[in-house]
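forwarding from the other thread:

> can someone predict this with flavin-adenine dinucleotide?

sure thing
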Amino acid sequence: MSRIVIIGAGIVGLSVARAALKRGHDVIVLEQGPAPNPQAASFDNHRMIRYPYGSAAGYTRMVTEAFSAWDRLWSDLGTAHFENTGAIAISLEAGDYAQKTLDTFKAVGLPHEVLSRDGVEALCPHLSLPAHAWGVVSFPGGPLFAGRIVTELAQWVRDHGGIIEHDCRVARVDLETGIAVRADASEVAGDLLLVAAGAWLPALLPERYGKASVYRQGLCYVEPPAQYEQSWREAPAIAAIGDHTGYTLPDRRGAGLKIGYSAHRRLARPETDGFGSDLESESRAILGAFKPYFRDFEAYRPTRIQVGYYVLDASRRFEVVQTGRGLVVTNCDGQMFKFGPLLGERILGMFAGEQSASDLAHWAAGY
Ligand SMILES: Cc1cc2nc3c(=O)[nH]c(=O)nc-3n(C[C@H](O)[C@H](O)[C@H](O)COP(=O)(O)OP(=O)(O)OC[C@H]3O[C@@H](n4cnc5c(N)ncnc54)[C@H](O)[C@@H]3O)c2cc1C
């Protein structure tokens, strides 16, 4: 039996904690806020899991593995916090995200359906698309109810003997020796020290990650016009409209309809820029991108902005780096939630010698 020390009670840290407990290890999770922390990237009403992934064939294939890992989590929790609405990518021009997705689906042999513009509008009557638009739909896909997942996962970890120290900020780490130093200067040593600090990683390890690009992203919850409430609820999650007009998550299980615009993000740091938002201006910036495509656009009523932060590297590849007893997970981008439980299992597989750290890093990078 080994001792696994984990910094961060987001989806990555908690998934590693669960995988470690299932293999009989001692687990200590150190979390600077409440556990789970509503400011963590992992905390929102929903996050999307979907096959449409542009030209990223490795990550497209990984989604199948991810669904199996979620199924194992659902059986531990006794509930599936997921709705299989399907996910659609909508093409507006040659070579865009949907086109790349379709090419990838064909290359990896993934089942899908291609819809004409009229077919997309029949499925999504709240959309009004140009005549040349088309869509590609795949199942399974849809909302993972993120806040409920991390809340129940944290409870599962506690119920199975894991220790979660909340309101416990780690001030320093020594990756080589696996030692984490709490803000009160007390130390805890792990045979494996997992750093899953999300957007706070540059603050924790400034020498190594001080220059990492941390982005702030706001997502907008909206009430749609009454005549489209039901169609929004029943439609697939939208993974992309064209190349730059973001994504939507349907209002299932009371989670609300949420709209994201991928270009609406900026370099910022959670510890200095905070979590505030001006609903009027920020909702305008997010929703404005959808004006050409939402029927009765003016009738949408923004209700709140959810602010989150993540590290995004130009490679768009997750990074899992081993140094001595330390393992750092970063570059989680706006993408890691769906892979959290799978990554947790893989990390413990690596720790047990089933896979080398370099093979794990290669796999996590989506090759
Ligand atoms: C707006 C937004 C939309 C997204 N949409 C999707 C999506 O649709 N689908 C998808 O798959 N992914 C999505 N993502 C990405 C996904 O949410 C993240 O990649 C994932 O949640 C990262 O998990 P994590 O555990 O690494 O980090 P986090 O969830 O951020 O957890 C890190 C934890 O570490 C704690 N911590 C940090 N520093 C310290 C310290 N020094 N001491 C103690 N504790 C510390 C923090 O308090 C936090 O709780 C989105 C992200 C954002 C922000």
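The radius of gyration is 20 Å. thats all i got for now
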